[in-house]
Amino acid sequence: EKGGYEHFMLKEIYEQPRSIADCMRGRLDAKNGRLVLGGLRDYMNKFQNADRIIITACGTSWHAGLVAEYLFEEFARIPVEVEYASEFRYRNPVVNEKDFVIAISQSGETADTLAAIELAKSKGATIFGVCNVVGSSIARATHAGSYTHAGPEIGVASTKAFTAQISVLTMMALMLGYQRGTLTESKYVQLLNELEKIPSKVEETLQMNPHIEEISAEYKDARNFLYLGRGYNFPVALEGALKLKEISYIHAEGYPAAEMKHGPIALIDEEMPVVFIATKDNSYEKVVSNIQEVKARKGKIIAVVTEGDTTVKSMADHVLEIPDTAEAFVPLLSVIPLQILSYHIAVMRGCNVDQPRNLAKSVTVE
Ligand code: F6R
């Protein structure tokens, strides 16, 4: 059932080229410049005219929501708020009929997310679900939705569900931007073509596995890890840190790289591995200077970079190269080496990778 893999988590990491393709199948047709999400059809008007998009979720799904905030604001120019379901529901939030709420959940059973949906619904908002499990409670509680079609995810640490969530949210943002006219036809078509190449670029990224395994051996005994990224890679830093802590039990924190100087920099010494996501994008130069600051304090640097990068390569202890793509699609690639890194470290520490202590696959308690 693990298809020859030692753990479900590794199998699911390796399934991502296919699960992302499955998620796009029948929806994205780049050649003909077409993108259709069936679940959105009846609600496109509401979506297009929303004053605001509120995204609610927990854990890894909340990280996918953060990526979506960047996507929706960049492509569709609608303000977005991303809310932990557990905070949103308990603070008497301001919500009304003009709000479009997106609830993201792999299991579709997370109690806090379900309660947040019921609350927003009672205030008249339109609720759209992005779920993996067909027929789940959240899928049923929403007005409409698009499934992620990633297939069953058995490993407790979410991997392929996360990239499928981002794939659906990316398609939503592109459709919305095109309909609203905030995304030009030529840019839209160019992005559709780039999106179609993502599964094969994920495949290429997976080839780093043996290299990441070697690096993992060097850092498996670390007591702390810092993950830093900016822009689209900030949520990826949070997700990388979450993956490491939940399965290897190493303390890890993710931060926006620019926030480092406001506190976390005090932690840096030769014992502190820092994972930078430093791909070639708008904030590249800034991230490079953060890398220099860490190096000056003798921190160990593992950097995820764009293929062919030489600047970061000359500074970092280790580089993990991912294929070039549109800035907005980078999370779909940059998260892959971080999933693999946490996997190997956890295995080397003798942890129960698929069923980490104290965690459950669906959190049905509030
Ligand atoms: C992380 C993880 C959890 C879930 C969270 C939400 O790897 O598995 O953080 O992401 O419990 O679960 P869903 O998406 O099922 O609502």
From TrEMBL:
Its EC number is 2.6.1.16. Residues 43-182, 215-356 form the SIS domain. It comes from the Bacteria. Keywords: Aminotransferase, Cytoplasm, Glutamine amidotransferase, Repeat, Transferase. The active site is at residue 361. It is found in: Cytoplasm. It catalyses: D-fructose 6-phosphate + L-glutamine = D-glucosamine 6-phosphate + L-glutamate. GO terms for molecular function: glutamine-fructose-6-phosphate transaminase (isomerizing) activity. Transmembrane segments: none annotated. Its main location: cytoplasm. Catalyzes the first step in hexosamine metabolism, converting fructose-6P into glucosamine-6P using glutamine as a nitrogen source. Homodimer. This is Glutamine--fructose-6-phosphate aminotransferase [isomerizing]. It comes from Belliella filtrata. The gene is glmS.
